[in-house]
Amino acid sequence: MESLQVQDESILIEKVCQIYEKISKLETLKPSKDVDNLFTQLVHACIPHSSINIATLPANIQEIRSKLITLCGEAGGLLEAHFSTILGSFKNPLHHLNIFPYYSNYLKLGHLEYDILNQHYSTIAETPKRVAFVGSGPLPFTSIVLASYHLKDTTFHNYDIDSMTNSMASRLVSADHDLY
Q1: Under 8 Å between Cβ of 31 and 79
Q2: 80 shares its domain with 97
Q3: Rounded CA gap, 5 and 135, in Å?
Q4: Are residues 63 and 47 in the same domain?
Q5: Residues 6+ apart with CB under 8 A from 152
Q6: Residues 81 and 109 in one domain
Q7: Burial grade of 153 (CB within 10 A; 0-12, 13-18, 19 or more)
Q8: Is the pLDDT of residue 2 over 60?
């Protein structure tokens, strides 16, 4: 049984490394059919539970993992910027959030984050009056979901190191008088 597990882990590592090689050779990580396909493959490869101990992986595999995490972050930021631009073209951007392919994930994540936050405020009669998100990106879904569904009386402040990103995010929520 243990050798089967080691074999499955080896296959997973090899598959992830192959996907990394393809991703790292792309000219750009901006949303496209190729980019979307490769990241979808990566997600599907990583969804099943694995008991791989990252700390015991060889240094070259850990380096690939580290680089892949960076590439995923970059691709995620470009995906959010792409959809923030599209959403910003609507008169009421927040009425169209469902065009983002992972919107349902953010709804679930927002509920989970609210539950976690609520556990810390369960001993206090009031919910937080202000919440700040640092590094909120061009598509501040977490604060939008929390403000829309869970913490309607809370003021949210979103910050990002990139002023263009802040402008994109602000453009999305400024049309909604309940959130702005």
Answers
A1: yes
A2: no
A3: 38
A4: yes
A5: 178
A6: no
A7: exposed
A8: no
Domain count, the chain: 2
Within 8 A by CB and 6+ apart from 38, the residues are: 19, 22, 23, 26
Of 45, 47, 65, nearest to 55 by C-alpha is 65
Phi-psi region of 49 (alpha: psi -120 to 50; beta: other; left: phi over 0): beta
Q: What DSSP letter does each residue of 86-139 carry, written as one string?
A: HHHTSSSGGGGGGGSTTHHHHHHHHHHHHHHHHHHHTTSSS--SEEEEET--SS
Tokens of 109: 């994540």
User: Contact 113/142 with Cβ under 8 angstroms?
Assistant: yes
Task: State which amino acid sits at residue 14.
Answer: E
DSSP notation for 27-78: S--SS-HHHHHHHHHHHHHHSS-----GGGS-HHHHHHHHHHHHHHHHHHHH
Report the distance separating Cα 75 and Cα 38, nearest Å: 11
Q: What is the pLDDT of residue 26?
A: 97
Phi, psi angle pair for 176, to nearest 5°:
-100, 105
Phi then psi for residue 161, to 5 deg, are: -70, -25
pTM of the predicted model, to two decimals?
0.86
- Percent of the chain at pLDDT > 90 equals 74
Residues 158, 78: contact at Cβ < 8 Å? no
Same domain, 104 and 66: no
Which residues constitute the domain of residue 66? 2-88
